[in-house]
C-alpha cells in the first residue's frame, strides 16, 4: 500500500447565498435568494511521496485549508479524487482517521478541562494503542518536545507553545503514516518553533511519516521542505523543489568575490554572468532562465578560482514566493 498522498483533479465549489443590503434587500433575499458559487479549489493535482514532507503554500484564501479538509475527510470534493495512504478520505472517514494525524495551529483537539496526559490516555483508548507502545511513543515525544514539564496541567492553562506541542504529540500517538499540519507554529517564539521543527524532521527522517504542511512562515519552509506546491485562487501554479522555484523567480542573487590574483582570468561559468570587475573584486549574477542557484554558483566560483573573500546576496524566499504567486500562472 502507498503511504503517500495522491491528489487528482481535485475541486471544491461552495455555494453561498448573498444577502442584499437594506430591509427590502433582506426581504428580497428571503423570497428570491441569490446564490453565488465560490470555486475554492479548482482541478488540483499533486503527489506527496511516502516519507516526504511537502509544503502547500499560497496567499490567504488560496484554497490550502479547503484542500487539507478534503484530504482529512472533513469535506467532500465537488469533482476529482484523492487517496491518502491508499484510502479515499471522504468515503472512508473512519479508516482514514486511523492512518492520519492532523494539527491545526489555531485549534486544539485536546480536552480543554483535562490535564494533557489524560487527553493522551483518552486518545490511546480511542485508537486502541497497546499500553507499552503508547508509553514508548510518549517517552520519545517527551524527549523531543519536553512535554513532561507541563503534561499534568489542564489544557486551558497551557501557553500557546505548550498547547501546540501537546497537539502534535496527540496527533501522532496512534502512529499515523500521514500527517497534516495547518500552520503548526503560528504565534510561537523562535525557540519553540525550532523545537517543533526538529520534532517534525525527526518524524519524517526517522519515522518515515508523510507530511503535508501549510505555513506562511518562509523560514519554516526553508528549514523543513525540499518540495513545495503553490496554489493561488484555488489553482495549482507551481510544483517543484525550492531550488527550482528560486531559479525561476529569485533571479536577483549576486556572488561577490575577491580573487587572490588581481590579474587572474575569470572562468566562464554556465548560466553565470560576470557583472563587474575592479581589480581583484568580481561580482557574478544569474544569466538566463537556466541560471544555477546562488549556492551552486558560489560553489562553482570557489572551485574555479582562488579567492580570499566571498559574500553572497540572495533574494529573500518571501520575495521569491511573492514573485511566484504573481507570475506562477504564466510559466
Ligand atoms: N465553507 C465555505 N463556504 C464558502 N466559502 C468558503 C468556505 N470555506 C472556504 N471558503 C472560501 O474558499 C476560499 C479558500 O479558502 P481556504 O480557507 O481554503 O484558503 P487558505 O488558502 O487556507 O487561506 P488562509 O491562508 O487564509 O488560511 C476562500 O475564498 C474562502 O473564503
TrEMBL record:
Q: Does the keyword Amino-acid biosynthesis apply?
A: no
Recorded topology in the membrane: Peripheral membrane protein
Single GO term (MF): ATP hydrolysis activity
- Return the GO cellular component terms, semicolon-separated: plasma membrane
Q: Where is this protein found?
A: Cell membrane
The record ties this protein, via InterPro entries, to:
AAA+_ATPase (IPR003593), ABC_transporter-like_ATP-bd (IPR003439), ABC_transporter_ATP-binding (IPR050763), P-loop_NTPase (IPR027417)
Going by the UniProt record, its keywords in alphabetical order are: Antibiotic resistance, ATP-binding, Nucleotide-binding, Transport
Protein's UniProt keywords contain Repressor? no
Pfam families per the record?
ABC_tran
Main localization, broad class: membrane
Q: Indicate the segments forming the ABC transporter domain, all copies.
A: 18-258
Some GO term, biological process aspect, for this entry: which one? response to antibiotic
The record's section on SUPFAM superfamilies has: P-loop containing nucleoside triphosphate hydrolases
Protein name according to UniProt: ABC transporter ATP-binding protein
Amino acid at each position: 500500500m502507498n503511504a503517500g498522498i495522491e491528489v487528482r483533479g481535485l475541486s471544491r465549489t461552495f455555494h453561498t447565498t448573498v444577502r442584499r443590503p437594506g430591509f427590502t434587500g433582506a426581504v428580497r433575499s428571503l423570497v428570491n435568494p441569490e446564490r453565488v458559487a465560490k470555486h475554492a479549489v479548482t482541478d488540483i493535482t499533486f503527489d506527496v511521496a511516502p516519507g516526504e514532507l511537502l509544503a502547500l503554500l499560497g496567499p490567504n484564501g488560496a484554497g490550502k485549508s479547503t484542500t487539507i479538509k478534503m484530504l482529512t475527510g472533513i469535506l467532500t470534493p465537488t469533482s476529482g479524487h484523492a487517496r491518502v495512504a491508499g484510502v479515499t478520505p471522504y468515503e472512508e472517514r473512519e479508516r482514514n482517521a486511523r492512518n492520519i494525524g492532523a494539527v491545526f495551529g489555531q485549534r486544539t483537539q485536546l480536552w480543554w478541562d483535562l490535564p494533557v496526559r489524560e487527553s493522551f490516555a483518552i486518545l490511546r483508548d480511542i485508537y486502541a494503542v497497546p499500553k507499552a507502545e503508547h508509553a514508548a511513543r510518549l517517552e520519545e515525544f517527551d524527549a523531543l518536545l519536553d512535554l513532561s514539564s507541563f503534561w499534568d496541567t489542564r489544557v486551558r492553562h497551557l501557553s500557546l507553545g505548550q498547547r501546540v506541542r501537546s497537539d502534535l504529540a496527540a496527533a501522532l500517538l496512534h502512529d499515523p503514516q500521514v500527517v497534516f499540519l495547518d500552520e503548526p507554529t503560528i504565534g510561537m517564539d523562535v525557540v519553540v518553533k525550532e523545537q517543533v521543527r526538529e520534532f517534525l524532521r525527526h518524524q519524517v527522517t526517522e519515522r518515515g511519516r508523510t507530511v503535508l504542511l501549510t505555513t506562511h512562515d518562509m523560514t519554516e519552509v526553508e528549514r523543513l521542505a525540499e518540495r513545495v506546491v503553490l496554489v493561488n485562487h484555488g489553482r495549482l501554479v507551481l510544483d517543484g523543489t525550492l531550488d527550482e522555484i528560486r531559479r525561476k523567480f529569485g533571479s536577483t542573487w549576486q556572488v561577490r568575490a575577491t580573487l587572490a590574483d588581481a590579474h587572474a582570468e575569470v572562468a566562464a561559468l554556465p548560466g553565470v554572468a560576470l557583472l563587474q570587475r575592479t581589480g581583484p573584486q568580481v561580482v557574478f549574477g544569474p544569466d538566463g532562465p537556466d541560471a544555477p542557484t546562488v549556492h551552486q554558483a558560489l560553489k562553482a566560483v570557489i572551485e574555479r578560482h582562488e579567492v580570499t573573500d566571498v559574500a553572497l546576496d540572495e533574494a529573500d524566499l518571501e520575495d521569491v514566493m511573492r514573485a511566484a504567486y504573481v507570475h506562477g500562472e504564466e510559466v
